[in-house]
């Protein structure tokens, strides 16, 4: 786990190089553990590190395309939304990510976390 630096509503959590390709890194935040995922195309996504099924650690799952497969029972979760792929149903919290150069920031204040519901201006419905 790593510490974080706060700058207004965006929180700097490191660089893209801190996240393995097709892997993840967990950051501890006041809102709980957030898993940062990096795709083969260097896209970065952030999800609450808890599967919508039985709270499995998504950070330990397998990243493929823009999805991650949970290590516990193989549910597949969309990285962009936290939604479970059918036939499974459910959603984990997703957090907006900003990549500037190699720096990665997350917007915790706009996170849609499963235990707290949508807060502030999150457009996710
Ligand atoms: S806890 Fe993730 S699939 Fe069951």
From TrEMBL:
One of its GO terms (molecular function) is nitrite reductase (NADH) activity. Its EC number is 1.7.1.15. Gene3D superfamilies: Rieske [2Fe-2S] iron-sulphur domain (2.102.10.10). It holds the Pfam family Rieske. Residues 10-106 form the Rieske domain. Keywords: 2Fe-2S, Iron, Iron-sulfur, Metal-binding, Nitrate assimilation, Oxidoreductase. It comes from the Bacteria. Signal peptide: none annotated. SUPFAM superfamilies: ISP domain (SSF50022). PANTHER family: 3-PHENYLPROPIONATE_CINNAMIC ACID DIOXYGENASE FERREDOXIN SUBUNIT, FERREDOXIN-RELATED. This is Nitrite reductase (NADH) small subunit.
């Amino acid at each position: 786990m790593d510490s974080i630096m706060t700058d207004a509503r965006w929180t700097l959590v490191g660089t893209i190089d801190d996240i393995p390709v097709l892997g993840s890194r967990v950051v501890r935040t006041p809102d709980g553990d957030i898993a940062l995922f990096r795709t083969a195309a260097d896209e970065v996504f952030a999800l609450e590190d808890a599967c919508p099924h039985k709270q499995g650690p998504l950070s330990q799952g397998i990243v493929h395309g823009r999805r991650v497969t949970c290590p516990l029972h193989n549910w597949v979760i969309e990285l962009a939304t936290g939604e479970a792929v059918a036939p499974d149903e459910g959603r984990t919290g997703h957090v907006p990510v900003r990549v500037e150069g190699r720096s990665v920031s997350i917007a915790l204040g706009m996170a849609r976390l499963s235990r707290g519901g949508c807060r502030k201006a999150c457009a996710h419905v």
